[in-house]
Amino acid sequence: MTGAFDVHAARRQFASLDGRLAFFDAPGGTQVPDAVRAAVDETMRDAAANLGGSFATSVRVADVVARARAAGGRFLGCSPDEVVFGANMTSLNFALSRAVGRTLRAGDEVIVTRLDHDANVAPWRELAHDVGIVVRQVDIDPSDCTVDLADLEAQLGERTRIVAFPWACNAVGTVTDAARICRMAHDAGALAWVDATHYAAHEPIDVAAVGADVLLCSPYKVCGPHLGLAFGRGDLLAGWRPYKVAPASDTPVGHRFETGTQPYEQLAGFVASVDYLESIGGLEATLEHTRALGEQFLAGLPAGVRVIGRRTMDGRVPTFLLTADGWAAGALADELVARDFCVGAHDTFYCLGLHERVPYGEAVRVGIFHYHTAAEVDALLATVKALVQRPAELVD
Ligand SMILES: Cc1ncc(COP(=O)(O)O)c(C=O)c1O
After folding, report:
1. Ligand 1 within 6 A of 98 CB?
2. Which CATH number fits domain 7-31+283-394: 3.90.550.10, 3.40.50.720, 3.90.1150.10, 3.80.10.10?
3. Are strands 22-23 and 341-342 parallel, antiparallel or unpaired?
4. Pick from 90, 78, 158: nearest CA to 124
5. Is 172's C-beta closer than 6 angstroms to any atom of ligand 1?
6. What global pTM score does this model have?
7. What is the pLDDT of residues 14-71, one digit of tens each?
8. For residue 2, what pLDDT is reported?
9. 228, 239, 324, 350: least surrounded by Cβ within 10 Å?
10. So what's the architecture of 37-279 in CATH?
11. Ligand 1 pocket, 170 CB below 6 A?
């Protein structure tokens, strides 16, 4: 236990955290508390209906939707009306970028960064293909994988309409100075479009304080079900022409961008995940614990293991990209998996611009989350050390 956050009490809320497997695959999706599973199950039992009826199951669906909007508003720091739900972050980003794309003209510019997941790049490149907008890419410092703000300043111009950037990088864990980037975008007369998918798993979000115009994330990366969640500033959402069917309601304003029937059982699970986070004091309460685990991990890495990105917990979340001398990343990941550590290896982790700039080949990603313990991190370190001390071909 660190500070007020009791990791063991938190873990007791997850049946899957029974100690058999160590889930260091959190950036791909976290474990869910039992209450989330129960909420999904109960909704399928008690609210298998659609909106609009006066019978009990339909009334319950309306209640689920209202509670999900309220929970989204609390999680993001916005009005429940400004919450948009979708299948996942990528689908929501295509939908919202297509809507704003109707206001863009050939030659208008959208800036993205080399730290972005492709889910925050491809939507703009597709608009470039369709509408003739120009997509610019801000560089990073390859030595520590931080966004080059001088390059951003240099690329902002009178045709800049949108600055799209990640609040944290899902490959190397770098946290960007989101408030500053939002201010820079606004000073240039552009919208600030924030991919908070990785950040939302680690630190609390207040869209007003950071100055986001649009912000997107995925509840399944923070104890919720597979779902996408976005905030859009109310006046923007009201002004954009959505792709929607005619009878669908225009209110609340976020609903204009939600197509078809929503996954009500997932929305109920999302409510339970926000309730869980609030019950542990919010992500704010976990920061000291996760920082300590990250420091423990960095300090304990054996010689021969390289961290791509920052080698300190300053300016990062505890997501680490590693290569090891003498090891192909895939082989190292396989050995760790065989020893009950859930990790994976990949080339880009969908951060294509980063991989181009820092050509590390393939790497293993270790994602530390608030439900991890110091003992799990120690066990992982000891296993990595034992493996890298022997060449890959001698490991049986
Ligand atoms: C930083 C980041 N952005 C966007 C995405 C895409 O999210 P989704 O799978 O919800 O579409 C991911 C998924 O890993 C991510 O890590």
Report:
1. no
2. 3.90.1150.10
3. parallel
4. 90
5. no
6. 0.97
7. 999 999 999 999 999 999 999 999 999 999 999 999 999 999 999 999 999 999 999 9
8. 43
9. 239
10. 3-Layer(aba) Sandwich (3.40)
11. yes
